[in-house]
Amino acid sequence: MATPDEKIYQLALSMTPGLGCKACRQLLDLGKNATELFGMTKSQLIEFTGGTKHKFIDNIVNRVSMPQSENEMRWMERYGIQMLYYTDQNYPQRLNRTECIDTPIVLFMQGQCDLNNTKTMAMVGSRRATEYGKEQTTRIVNSMQGDNILVISGLAYGIDGWAHRSALDNQLPTVAVLGHGLDNIYPSQHRKLASDIINHGGALVTEYPSGTKINPVYFPARNRIVAAMSDVVIVVEAADKGGALITANIACGYNRDVMAVPGRLDDTYSVGCNNLIASHKASILRSADDIYDMMNWTSLQRKPDGGKQQELFKSLGPNEQSVYNILKTYGPQTIDEMTTHTTLSLTKIADALLNLELDGNIKCLPGKLYKAM
Predict the structure, then answer these.
(1) Which of 176, 178, 171 shows the shortest CA–CA distance to 153?
(2) Backbone angles phi, psi at 152, to 5 degrees
(3) What is the distance between the alpha carbons of residues 11 and 86, in angstroms, rounded to a whole number?
(4) Are residues 125 and 152 in the same domain?
(5) Interval 149-163: pLDDT, tens
(6) pLDDT tens for each residue of 235-274
(7) Is residue 109 helix, strand or coil?
(8) 3-class SS at 164?
(9) 39, 74, 109 — which closes off a domain?
């Protein structure tokens, strides 16, 4: 466990001007900890980093971020804020996966939530949520009551706020990832919601220290943390542009599963979801059962199928049965991969896949993969 002095150096390193998240991780990967880096001379740092005079080297040598770090540590102690360093056990380890090269080395947390919950799910969507979006959010979360799934979102208006509130109503832990410091709540109308999250086993999390001004630039950056902390990202409503789609695309880049609630073709706030499904960036989400099936999660609420599946498959046509057997035997496959296991033409495979998906016997995953249910 890091000493108080080490914590100050860790925080100071994260605050060093010119040293972004990616560069900071690369520097630490060279083998020195924060305390050791601040103890090096300029020539030692230049040699240690490969002989290049990086802009941040002078800032480390001159300790320009130390006063801010010391002030922040005093502020955190006063208000009960935890600092999570990327090597700490309670730092969300999903942010430390190889593909997440731009996640922060330091997070600030208010609350007592386990950020390494076994099952984590982000719910994002339009700030201008429709009644349909609110209903779908409530319906999905209600179905998860009792299953200890961590619900993650961004405390914004619309679907974000509705997801947090639905989680609280169903006694599920929930985390709000903020795009500003913990000395502020934005939007201010969600102060009561933020308080309820903290008081009911959830947490507020941010990479930004106190005193950080509200800046629209920080909210898209916040979305990468929402995506990285999640096993699956659920998009409930989204127009053709916006933060929800940014989160979904980041999640795809982080190799996270993405699911989207479909909507009417003429509905402005379903365009983004429908496009995600059509482009195979997201799987279709009709109910919470789809999430459990996609993620192979067990549930205290769901009843075993018994012999239901066996009975259902008796009615499959020969092509559908052949394609289903391939997916069951070899696991998720693309259409091209399936052709190596059958004499059926591409057209017949595609027709069989469509019929199987409509009947709920298979699921289309991101990357145009098909999975047997």
Answers:
(1) 176
(2) -115, 135
(3) 11
(4) yes
(5) 999 999 999 999 999
(6) 999 998 888 999 999 999 999 999 999 988 888 989 999 9
(7) strand
(8) helix
(9) 74
Q: What is the rounded distance in angstroms from the CA atom of residue 269 to the CA atom of residue 120? A: 25
Q: What is the pTM of this model?
A: 0.80
pLDDT: is 192 or 309 the higher one? 192
Widest pairwise Cα distance in the chain? 75
Domain count, the chain: 3
Residues 6 or more apart from 65 whose CB is under 8 A from it? 12, 13, 15, 16, 17, 59
Q: 162 and 270 share a domain?
A: yes
Q: Are residues 156 and 280 in the same domain?
A: yes
Residue 199, CA atoms < 13 Å, CB-side half-sphere: 7
Q: Is 150 left (phi over 0), alpha (psi -120 to 50) or beta?
A: beta
In the block, residue with structure tokens 């995506």:
227
Give the tokens for residue 51.
Answer: 């002989």
Q: Which helix (H) or strand (E) holds 221?
A: helix 218-228
52: its two tokens: 């290049």
